[in-house]
UniProtKB/TrEMBL annotation:
It is an enzyme of class 4 (lyase). This is glutathione-specific gamma-glutamylcyclotransferase. Gene3D superfamilies: Gamma-glutamyl cyclotransferase-like. Its EC number is 4.3.2.7. One of its GO terms (biological process) is glutathione catabolic process. It comes from the Bacteria. CDD domains: GGCT_like (cd06661). Keywords: Lyase, Transferase. It comes from Pseudidiomarina aestuarii. One of its GO terms (cellular component) is cytoplasm. Transmembrane segments: none annotated. One of its GO terms (molecular function) is glutathione specific gamma-glutamylcyclotransferase activity.
Length: 189
């Protein structure tokens, strides 16, 4: 599958007939909302876990030296805390461009952290069949990779450190992210 997913997302899933759509963010979408939204609410998605297994050719790395960014991996017993945004369909022109490096969006259920009610919305996931996928590595290896990567959106370390900070603000303990963070902080010192 090509790593540029803009057309695939727009063809598979036109949204113009909807007034608004909820989007669940679990990576940079948590801390970098560079788009207009109607409201946002902390949420949890079940059956998925956050992993730094996706390569970034366009934001935190380059095609020859990709960075490592978050995707979701299916894990039936797991859940993942993030931030959901209610947006108008027009915002997906920007979001599809931002998430074009291997991420496909699909509708799924997630629940609000505060009252446990479920809602249906979109989530972008970069699966193992996309060309930019890097796959599993130890947290020490991931930290070493992130420490030397940089792309048009800035250093890869900034992505990881901002995400860890945002997760603490949400009181979300993510052992994978926090283990990479502590390895990375030691390397950056
Ligand atoms: C997301 O944040 O939901 C998608 C992955 C990313 O852009 O970091």
């Amino acid at each position: 599958m090509s790593h540029n997913t803009i057309e695939q997302n727009q063809q598979a899933q036109p949204l113009d007939h909807l007034d608004s759509v909820w989007l669940f963010g679990y990576g940079s979408l948590i801390y970098k909302a560079d788009f207009p939204y109607l409201q946002r609410r902390p949420a949890r998605i079940h059956g998925w876990e956050r992993r730094f297994w996706q390569g970034s050719h366009d934001h935190r790395g380059t095609p020859v030296s990709p960075g490592r960014v978050a995707t979701l991996i299916e894990a039936p017993e797991a859940n993942c805390i993030g931030m959901a945004y209610e947006v108008t369909p027009a915002v997906f022109a920007h979001l599809d461009h931002r998430e074009k490096n291997g991420y496909l969006r699909f509708f799924t259920e997630f629940e609000w952290l505060d009252d446990g009610q479920s809602v249906e919305g979109l989530v972008y996931v970069a699966g193992p069949d996309n060309e930019a996928y890097l796959g599993a590595a130890t947290e020490a290896e991931i930290a070493a990779h992130i420490a030397h990567s940089e792309g048009p959106s800035g250093p890869n370390s900034e992505y990881l450190l901002k995400l860890a900070e945002a997760l603490r603000e949400l009181e979300a303990h993510d052992a994978h992210v926090f283990a990479i963070e502590s390895e990375l902080r030691a390397l950056l010192e």
